[in-house]
Amino acid sequence: MAAPRLFAAAAVSAALVLVPVSAGAAPFGPGAAGSGEKYFPGMGNGGYDVAHYGIKLDYDPVSLALTGRVKITATAKQGLSRFNLDLRGLLVRSVAVDGKAAKWKRTGAQELVITPAKGIPDGRRFTVVVAYDGKPAQINDDPLGSSGWIATSDGAVALNQPFGAATWFPVNDTPKDKASYDFAITVPQGLTAIANGDFLGRKTAKGKSVYRWRMKQPMSSELSMVAIGKYKVLRTNTGGLESYTAIDSALAESGQLKKYDKKTRSVLRWLSGRFGAYPFTSTGGILDEVNVGYSLETQGRPVHDWNMKGKNPPDDLIVHELAHQWFGDSVTPAKWKDIWLNEGFATYAEWMWTEKNGGATAAQQFKQAYSAGPNADVWKGVLAEPGRDHIFDNFVYQRGAMTAHRLRVALGDKVFFGLLKSWLATGKGGTVSTKEFQAFAERYSGKQLDALFAKWVYKAGKPKL
Ligand SMILES: [Zn+2]
Q1: Domain limit, last residue, from 182, 202, 226
Q2: How much distance in Å is there from the Cα of 154 to the middle of ligand 1?
Q3: CA 1 to centroid of ligand 1, rounded, Å
Q4: In total, how many domains does the chain have?
Q5: Near ion ligand 1, which residues have CB within 5 Å?
Q6: What whole-number distance in Å separates Cα of residue 226 and Cα of residue 246?
Q7: CA 13 → CA 35, 43, 47, 362, distances in Å?
Q8: pLDDT tens digits, residue range 342-400?
């Protein structure tokens, strides 16, 4: 996420209750109602791992009604007597597990508790189909801002970071359960529906259009996205990389899409040189007026909340969200407390871009950021434990980028950039932690980094150089 350009509990882990069924039968128990996420205890669930979401949506921007049918393919990580999905609001019409009707109930803010007709054995692949409808309600969180399914003047945009996904589909809403996604989105003819990944085509009949999209690479639910509206669209294919770029037709001026596409491609080429091969099979971007005050690194195709007619976002914003395709999307912190691994490096990519283009060097930008007085806000938080309400605070970005720079200084350019490439290649498609990053950096460089991490990552206050 990036904001500055536009606008200046204990883990829930239900005890595993073993229910003896009969001699020799596998034991079954309920999956946990949480995923061990400290900052957002209700997010995610235990007992299974999702491999794929097949999401079918039909949206009417006049009545604001959403009708959904989602097929989840998952693997049981324990014998399951029942399990939870996350879903906020909306009316569940039916639930089936492996094709058989299942019982369900709604509890708490976002728990859909599903009891299949019979227990699911540990290790078994199973499917869940949930049919639902209703008017999705966006989340307005103070201080984390607006997220989820957000109605716009001509459609809707779904932005999920950190916990908006459950406002529009049933989901295991934790960054650590990545899956592939298929989308089929039906909208009134004349509107365009965009999601993550590769565009598979559009069919129009009886006044409605169905747009199909596919994200083949593993994706965290917080990075999934839908954008529906009147868009001007540009599709290009250069060197095998498909790009799909869309601008709200009320904002677009002639030539703007081409410029935006060209910028995206040149930034991706440069980032690939620094970070290694681009991790996805398509790219692009979306400019739309969503009124959330931020840009988001939705996987494969960032969304910029935007209202400046004929203008594209500034380079540093485009660089930031595209850098996240590596730091955040391909390699994703399993827990929200480690979000500096995203924001620090995406911000550092901005510094590097400025340096590359003849502006201030990264060293000069570090010096500038570091010159903040000892009582400045930027020194008040702990990078690896910012606290629930502070995951998007400026210090996560600035102290994060400063930490990246200190690491560069400690290791030297050759080792530092080699480390970044190796870390991203090794972690591709997976989830990580700050501890793993430090251990990896130490192994890669052969240097002991405890002192650097202790000062910059695990303690508040202005570190001594
Ligand atoms: Zn960001």
Answers
A1: 226
A2: 27
A3: 3
A4: 3
A5: 1-2, 343, 346
A6: 12
A7: 7, 11, 11, 44
A8: 999 999 999 999 999 999 999 999 999 999 999 999 999 999 999 999 999 999 999 99
